[in-house]
Write a structure and sequence with these properties.
13 strands; 7-stranded parallel sheet; elongated; 12 helices; alpha/beta; 37% helix; 362 residues
Length: 362
Amino acid sequence: MNKEISSGYKSIKILHVLNNFDIVNGITTTCSVIFKEIDKSNEFELSLALGNKSESDISKLNIKNIFIDKSFDYTKRNILNFIKAFYFSFKLIRNNNFDIIHTHHFYHSFIFSCLKIFGKFKVVRTIHGLIPNKGVLPHYYADEFISVSRGNLELLKILKPKLISKIILIHNSHDLKLGKSKNHFVKMKFLVASRLTHEKGIHILLKAISILPKINRNFTISIAGNGELEEEVKIFCVKNKIIFLGTVKDIPKIINHYDCLISPIIGDEEKEGFPSIIAKSAMSKLAVISSDFTGYNYYLNNKNSFIYNKYNPDELAKTILKVANNRNIAIRKSEIIFKDFKLDFDKKENFDKLKQLYFSLL
C-alpha cells in the first residue's frame, strides 16, 4: 500500500478486472461510476486489469495502473489462453500488493481464487447476470459476491442456497442528474437504446412500429445501439421514418432529450441482470414502456410504467399510441418511477455499501 489516508492508515489497494472498458457497455459504464466514487475517496488506490485495450477515454479517472493482456479476454477462452491468463494473474499478485481483487466474470474470479495461496488478497465477484453453467470452470469461486438485481438474488437463493450468506445486493449506480426537469416536446419523443439483437426484442419492436400510422404522427421514435440486426434496423428506419442514432457513447447526455423509453427486451432478466437503460431512464424521469421480461416485476409495475406482453407487437404498438395520446398519464408515471428507483439506485448509498463490503474483507 502506497497512498496514505487522512486517518493515518494506508489506502486499500483494489484491482478491478474487466474484459474491456467500452463506455457503451453496461458493465463498464457502471464501473466508471464506481471508479469516479473511488477517486473521490482517499481510502482506496485503484488499478485495472483488462483483456483488451480501452475503447473509451479513462485518462480522467485516477487509476494507478492499467494492465492489459489478451489472455484475459473471456470471449476467447481455450486451454492455452487459460494458462496464459493464469500466469498473467500470478505475476499481477506477485508484483503488486493488492488487498482486494474485484472481478466481473466467473472466468477471472476462478483464476484469482485459485491463486489466493500466493497472497493475502480477497476476491469479490459482481454477478451482473446468471450465465448458464457450460464448460469446465466453476462459476462461483470468490470470497464475496455482489448481486446487482433482486431477480438474480432471488434465483440464486434457489440455485445456490449455500452461497446466500456470501451475497450482498448492491444495485448498479448511474452518473446522472437525478430527476432533471425537462421541457416536454410538442411531439412525444420515444427512445430505444439497446443492443440490436433478437434477445433484446428488436424484431418485436420493428413489427410494432410497422403497425403504427405512417403519417400525421404526434410522436417520434429514435433507436440507439449496434449489434447483429444493425443493418436491418437502418434500412427499416429509413423506410418507416424512424430516427437511427447508431452507437451513442454517452447515453446519459441524450436521455433528457426524450419523454419516454421503450424497452422491448425478451431475454430473461436472470441471465442479463436488470437492464441498466431502464434505471437510467427512470432516474432521469422518463416514462417507461417495458415488456414483461422475466424479473421485470421486481422493479416495474402498472403504477410506475407501461407493461406489455413481450411477444406481442400489436400490444406494444397500442401501448406506444396510448402513451403518445396521454402525456399527462406518462408524466405522472415518470414521477412515480423516479421515486421508486431513487430508493434502490442512489449512487452515494450504493457506493457506501460497496465501501462497507471492502472494509469488511480486510
